[in-house]
Automatic annotation (TrEMBL):
This is Hsp33 family molecular chaperone HslO. GO terms for biological process: protein refolding. Signal peptide: none annotated. One of its GO terms (cellular component) is cytoplasm.
Amino acid sequence: MSERNVTNKQADKVIRAMTNDGAFRVITALTTETVRGAIASQNAKGTVAGRFGELVTGALLIREAMSPNLRVQGILKGASGKGSIVADAHPDGTNRGLVGFSGTTGEDMAGGKGALLKMMRTLPNGSLHQGIVEVSFEAQDGGISGALMSYMQHSEQIVSTIAVATLLEGDEVVAAGGYIVELLPEVERGPLMIMTQRLEDFPKLDDLLRKGDLTPNALIEDLLYGMPYTLLAESDLRYACHCSELRVLSSLATLPRSDIEDLLRDNKPLEITCDYCRKEYGIQPSQLQALLMAS
């Protein structure tokens, strides 16, 4: 049986847990099908597909850590400034994304420094919390995982260890997932020393995913081995787009009246494609007329 078939037996989900002594909070996620759907919708390939998958997983982990009931977006801009990748994580467990270049382009995300990661999360009052960090794809700097740790430390003032990974065989997603281990203020020296050594010796996430049987529960058990902990929450994850004809019409309704009249001049249906999922919408002239009547 192939690795892909084995991995597919596990449903995508994310789990939050905290040690009973209040020293650590851990979030683990399996995101294989979610990442697979996002990559397929954007026809991403090669290095770009891998980075895209990592960002999709990273955005949902940050949402679980900082805003479980709100939306989080991550935007990765290449060092050359010619391309970008977007991950969009929603509180209902749905995730989607955008790739600003397709195919095997995006060489500036294959190695070196200079890329930028911008994380944005919605606050309860509707405003946005934003943070920007540099991303280095040199091996010792950790790529997107390292950038997410830098974001958490500098923008959220939380010390953490983060790992995200997407395994590809050719253009196929074999497995994807990630975890966060947060250091909480109540930690004492003993547990801190134990966790520090454990994380230094912990297997690479890629290797764990490659085995094909990794689950979020098993990952938490390994990370917190010997430490009593309590599960706080468990949520399903999936790829899905929030587009709809109503949302398209609502966007068109914000156009100036003169622009809508221009769209009606040839009296033909207006074809609009969602950038996230590539679904096509045909807006009829009668629907555009209704927008004019309502304005």
